[in-house]
Amino acid sequence: RDSSQEVLEWRESFDQLLKSKNGVTAFHTFLKTEFSEENLDFWLACEDFKKTRSKTKLASKANRIFEEFVQNEAPREVNIDHETREITRKNLSGATSACFNEAQAKTRTLMEKDSYPRFLKSASYQDMTKQATSRGISKRSHT
């Protein structure tokens, strides 16, 4: 699969975008222009957190993620409701790889319903699709 095909697949679903390293990078760049990259950063931190195998690392990573993204007035606070914030806080006492699942799901839904559609309409993504489409056409006409 070449990159132009990949760019066009990001339109198909938010999952396609998140599965693509380039997609995540492009989406992150877009979110920075809106000053709302903390949701994606939190989601990525949770994905990384789930891969943590060491119990001691799990607890310290959980606290770091909570302090950076979840607690009230966190430096990069994600937009989740009070109830989810409380559930997540309680989950920290016995940190498991699932302790952020609910908060992560909420931020994912928020990105999918809010930021993702704006990303697809953004000038940067429109430019990428134009380039991808023209590369696809020029490739076909050269074969």
TrEMBL record:
User: What are this entry's molecular-function GO terms?
Assistant: GTPase activator activity
Keyword set includes Cell inner membrane: no
Taxonomic superkingdom: Eukaryota
Query: What is the originating organism of this protein?
Result: Columbina picui (Picui ground-dove)
Query: Which example biological process does GO assign this protein?
Result: negative regulation of signal transduction
Checking InterPro entries in the record gives: RGS, RGS_sf, RGS_subdom1/3, RGS_subdomain_2
Location (main, coarse) = membrane
What keywords were assigned to this record? GTPase activation, Lipoprotein, Membrane, Palmitate, Phosphoprotein, Signal transduction inhibitor
Q: What is the membrane topology here?
A: Lipid-anchor
Q: Which named protein is this?
A: Regulator of G-protein signaling 16
Briefly state the protein's biological role: Regulates G protein-coupled receptor signaling cascades. Inhibits signal transduction by increasing the GTPase activity of G protein alpha subunits, thereby driving them into their inactive GDP-bound form. Plays an important role in the phototransduction cascade by regulating the lifetime and effective concentration of activated transducin alpha. May regulate extra and intracellular mitogenic signals.
| Location in the cell | Membrane
PANTHER family, per database record: REGULATOR OF G PROTEIN SIGNALING, REGULATOR OF G-PROTEIN SIGNALING 16
Q: Where is the RGS domain?
A: 13-129
Query: A single Pfam family, by name?
Result: RGS
Q: Which residues form a coiled coil?
A: none
Its Gene Ontology cellular component terms are:
membrane
